[in-house]
Specification:
OB fold (Dihydrolipoamide Acetyltransferase, E2P), 4 domains, six-stranded mixed beta sheet, four-stranded antiparallel beta sheet, 26% helix, globular
Length: 549
């Protein structure tokens, strides 16, 4: 059965999109995960992938043309399938599976349009001064979101630009700001709950608005409408009670709500956030809570001895006892997305691994000279990234993507850099790394990694990598293997620099070495190609002056 693909909402403020480029044409076979088109939003140009398999039967928006969100973008189905009913807007199936973009009748628009906050239904119309806020699509692959923290409560005054909530997507936890001013009348998705994109998130409007009528007019689910009646009047006592509830919740192993600055300060000072009661909105831990925190002294152990008995005797005779237990934590959207992506990569791409050992003596000396210059700091990781980018230029077979019937070979080099964050792993992308100098690469990595750790990184800054580097050397790991970050064909694992005896000119001397392991997708990269890439990479790292030419 044919599937209708609509113009997606790829950013929270996107109202229409422009097809910058079609990567498939009518008649092409489509596999799930294939990139259909590049779509230009109000914020960036993003790749749009297919969630369906079949044949591309129809293209509804030509290259260069723009159309509102939910307009008919394409139809995928079986080769030779009759799609005339779908194109003409007829049949009940078409009405159920298509969004309002076809617009053949006003009645259809009312039934399926989620993009328009002024929905109309049997219950009446949403007042002009009331806004229904939907769960936004904050990344191109986001299908549902989880409300990590509400920063406003029912009854609060909201100004345009205020942060309403922190929303967890499949890639990051992002702040979601309001584009409207008014009073927060209703919260449709509670903290910790998940909901699909375009589900009613909140309602903002004049104080005293009949929320039930708005929800009925917007065809929102009735059970949630009753929740607004339970919202208590905000008082100092209720706020304190809520803060206390938040504090106890963290003690039970649930999510700790803290500002990015507070988390960073706590990490630097070695403070356990679960020991702190937040004084911010809804018990959120803020900067002053970290500054004012005084850790409790651990109770001193009281030594007890028995002069008439051996000290070891009671210990050796005691039978260990304790309670068995297990804690189950709900997986975050980010963790589920990581699991899905890495599982797909490991079980679909035939991995093989190549390891070399690199002499780092010259690299150490060169880095010391470079960092001796005013206002310049270069890390060994920056040197590895630059060397990889230059080696990819000489070995473009590694800078590829397996695409079923074809292999994509990129003329640009975008380096993915694996960065560990609290909830998993993200891969910011340094664009055109082969054209950047060492200091430019270093500055880009520092900025992107900082954004990733503070959850301020944009989805567009984590897309488009053609090769990835993962470095665990700073943790003392000497050698490891990584799972390929698809759609890349390879990933480099960087170990620690180790001082050990080495043979130079027939003599045993003290040297510094580092192990590099290249994981390759055997569908696109053969063993000899991977080995030649590593030889070139070693030449650049062992002779850093060649990277400055």
């Amino acid at each position: 059965m044919a599937e209708i693909i609509n113009m997606p909402r790829l950013s929270d403020t996107m109202e229409e999109g422009t097809v910058a480029k079609w990567l498939k044409k009518v008649g092409d076979k489509i596999a799930e995960g294939d990139i259909l088109a590049e779509i230009e939003t109000d914020k960036a140009t993003m790749e749009f992938e297919s969630f369906h398999e079949g044949t591309l039967l129809h293209i509804g928006i030509d290259e260069g043309d723009g159309a509102p969100v939910d307009s008919l973008l394409a139809i995928i189905g079986e080769e030779g399938e009759d799609i005339s009913e779908l194109l003409n807007g007829g049949g009940s199936e078409a009405q159920e599976t298509t969004a309002a973009g076809q617009g053949e009748s006003k009645e259809e628009e009312v039934e399926v349009s989620d993009a328009d906050a002024k929905d109309t239904a049997a219950g009446g119309e949403v007042p002009e001064d009331v806004e229904i806020v939907k769960m936004p699509r904050l990344s191109d692959t986001m299908e549902e979101g989880t409300v990590a923290t509400w920063l406003k409560s029912v009854g609060d005054t909201v100004e345009e630009g205020d942060i309403l909530a922190e929303i967890e997507t499949d890639k990051a936890t992002m702040e979601f700001e309001s584009f409207y001013s008014g009073t927060l009348l209703y919260i449709g998705i509670k903290e910790g709950e998940s909901a699909p994109v375009d589900e009613v998130l909140a309602i903002i409007g004049p104080e005293g608005t009949d929320v039930d009528a708005v929800l009925n007019a917007g065809s929102a689910p009735q059970p949630k409408a009753a929740e607004k009646k339970e919202a208590p009047e905000k008082t100092a006592s209720t706020s304190a009670q809520k803060n206390q509830e938040q504090a106890s919740a963290t003690a039970d192993g649930q999510r700790i709500f803290a500002s990015p600055l507070a988390k960073k300060m706590a990490e630097d000072k070695g403070i356990d956030l679960s020991k702190i009661t937040g004084t911010g909105d809804h018990g959120r831990i803020v900067k002053k809570d970290i500054e004012n925190f005084t850790p409790e002294e651990a109770p001193k152990a009281v030594a007890q001895t028995d002069k008439g008995a051996s000290a070891a005797s009671p210990v050796s005779m005691a039978i260990p006892s304790g309670e068995e237990g297990v804690e189950e934590t709900k997986n975050s959207n980010m963790r589920k997305a990581i699991a899905k992506a890495l599982g797909n990569s490991k079980f679909t791409a035939p991995h093989f691994y190549l390891t070399i050992e690199v002499d780092m003596d010259n690299a150490i000396a060169s880095r010391a000279q470079i960092n001796g210059l005013p206002d310049i700091k270069v890390s060994f990781n920056d040197m590895v990234l630059k060397a990889c980018a230059m080696a990819l230029r000489k070995h473009p077979q590694v800078n590829t993507t397996w695409n079923g019937d074809t292999t994509k070979q990129y003329t640009h080099i975008h380096m993915g850099v694996a960065v560990a964050v609290d909830e998993g792993l993200v891969v910011p992308v340094v664009k055109h790394a082969d054209l950047l100098g060492l200091t430019q690469i270093g500055a880009a990595v520092k900025e992107l990694a900082g954004k990733a750790r503070s959850k301020k990184i944009a989805p567009s800054e984590m897309e488009g990598s053609t090769f990835t580097v993962s470095n665990l050397g700073m943790f003392g790991i000497q050698e490891f293997t990584s799972i390929i970050n698809q759609p890349n064909s390879a990933i480099l694992s960087v170990g620690a620099i180790v001082q050990k005896p080495v043979v130079k000119n027939g003599e045993i001397v003290v040297g510094n070495t580092m192990k590099l392991t290249l994981a390759c997708d055997h569908r696109t990269v053969d063993g000899a190609v991977g080995a030649q890439f590593l030889q070139t990479l070693r030449a650049f790292i062992e002779n850093p002056v060649t990277m400055l030419a």
